[in-house]
Amino acid sequence: MIPEAREVHLSRKDRKVLEACCRSPVTLQRDLKRARIVLLAADGRSTRSIAKEVGVQPRIVSLWRHRYADHGLEGLQDKPRPGKQPIYTKTTDKRILKLLDKPPPQGFARWTGPLLAEALGDVDCPICLAVPAQATRLTWWLASPGARATTRTLRPKPPMLSASMSRRRRRPLCCAWTRSPRSRLWSERRVI
Hints:
elongated; single chain; MscS-like_channel; Putative transposase; Homeodomain-like_sf; mainly alpha
């Protein structure tokens, strides 16, 4: 059952923000739908007609009407989702990046993940997982000896597979290619 529709009253400022959101080419689809729902609700449209036009269920329209009526524009943002909290904070990220600016320990040509973990002392997981935002930079650092973050610019990571490698290799249709002692060519099989 659909709850009773709440009236939505938009201020001029909120209307401008929502209309700009609808016109922007970089707006996420979920935010665009939410903005359209609120704008159509403010024009006095019914929940079912808004749902049909926007392409969502009527209960979704009702949800965003209520959220906007209760909390305004902030109500249209996602609530924090449950899940495991990150193990490391931004301070750990900064500590790792400061270590990368220093030369590696005596006897080593470059920093490695275990060396970084040992130097930090309290890091007990792979370093690239500890710094997801800097993983590309960190991987680049670990691969190049004597690099300095302040003097070199990073290139974006190459794609995982090049166009020539993305084609799947097909298995041979003939069993002679399997190199199994029991396999024989189709022509060699005898019908009993």
